[in-house]
Amino acid sequence: MYWRMAQAFPIAGSVYSYAQRGLSPHVGFMAGWAILVDYIPVPALVYLVAGLWLAAEIPTIPVWGWILMFLVLNSVLNLLGIDVMARSMWVMLGIELLAFFAFVVAAIIYVAKGGGVGAFSLAPFFDPEKFNWQFVLTATSVSVLSYLGFDAISTLAEETRNPRVMIGRSMIVALAMLAFFFMTQTWLAALVWPDYTTFPNTDVAFFYIAQEAGGTVVRLLALIGTVLAWGIGDGIAAQAAVSRVLYGMARDEQLPKALAWVHPKYKTPWIAIFLVALITLPIATLLDLEVLSSLVNFGALTAFMVLHITVIGYYFFQKKERSPQGILNYLILPLIGLLIIGFVWANLNVHAKTLGFIWLGIGFVLLLIVSRGFRKVPPALQV
Hints:
Distance between the termini: 27 Å
Strand content: under 5%
Structural class: mainly alpha
Number of strands: 0
């Protein structure tokens, strides 16, 4: 669905811009406000996770110290622009792939020699004796959090060459790669350490698995790879995404205009970038992982539902794409996606939905103010 809307509106703002132009300016504002409750806590979440891992390994530096280091580094990289971010991402990807393949080789050798479950099996994918739908729903909410981030690509549309093609293509490639890496790693981890109830500390469970499979070298490689992925790679992307959404909303006079200021040299929304940094530090140090995860899931799933509705509203109703292919692409498939996402959303925990609806309520009040009771629309949409 992102691909469809990026083809129609290759601009910064992601779901905010798509719903604003595909449905209505006011729905767009609420969609942008919803995605902010996904994007704003994400930098804090990834920094907190990486900080917990590093503090467990190097306790002389507190968690907040690691968070601050990640925050400063990623803010600077974001300020310097998309080209610098892209180059740094390639370096980190190389290190992460090295860690991934080191674990894969070590785990295969370990299981082949009789370790863990003692033999290769597909039981981690499906075990009829333990299968139940409640467990699937719980796991799905975890999976949502694991795969989030691909949508951040859409926020960089105005800094991408040929965005109508590259935005959608990049998302598909990213999701396919994520699925391969996650499934392979999780499957082998389950074979190496089949009883998940026996971890001394579940917050760093994978490092126990890496230690068991390949010793200290593989464990340290896994630590370096995951810290780089979460603390720097994911952190850069998350800060870039939320700053671009803030930029898009500010440019449309939905938020303070200063958030749309672009640095004259680096061509990046520098005020928005540093505001995100200022917000992230207290969120990461004051909230726990459960609260952050709940907020992220609520915001992402709410925005995804709006995105599917936007595809239907824009293409099927406004553009009247009603050929057999159009009905499939712009009505049936979005409806299927909407039902699946809605089902997962309905089964989020009560805490997540309570916090989420409070956030949406604040956004609705703000919308009434900036739109002067729904009478004002952004300048870009005035006719």
